[in-house]
Write a structure and sequence with these properties.
The protein is an all-alpha fold. It has one domain. The protein contains four helices and no strands.
Length: 108
């Protein structure tokens, strides 16, 4: 199973952007941060920091070695899925290494 989870990305010129902008919930106009990994819309019932922490927690838990082993072992009856899980987790860790050393996540 491939899971993609992103934060809200309200691109300028869209109704979604206008909606959040009118409410004063757009956190930044630095469009380098509009990548789905950074929070650019202030949530109503939590802080930006809480959403960032929750988003990062989910990504780390889902892509942890233990989670990977559980997903792979549950799919042993469907061998064609094992390779997909390996590629998915490898890609996640590669992206994290890349962001760590190339400053892709502009807020850190």
């Amino acid at each position: 199973m491939h899971v993609t989870v992103n934060t809200i990305i309200p691109y300028p010129g869209t109704k979604q952007y206008d909606y959040y902008n009118k409410q004063g919930r757009i956190v930044t106009d630095d469009f380098r941060l509009y990548d789905g990994r950074n929070v650019v819309v202030k949530p109503k019932k939590m802080t930006v920091k809480e959403l960032e922490q929750g988003y990062n927690w989910f990504r780390e838990k889902y892509n942890s070695p233990l989670s990977f082993v559980k997903r792979v072992s549950s799919n042993l009856t469907r061998p064609k899925n094992i390779g997909a899980h390996f590629v998915e987790v490898f890609d996640y860790h590669l992206l994290n290494l890349k962001s760590k050393y190339t400053n892709i996540n502009y807020r850190n």
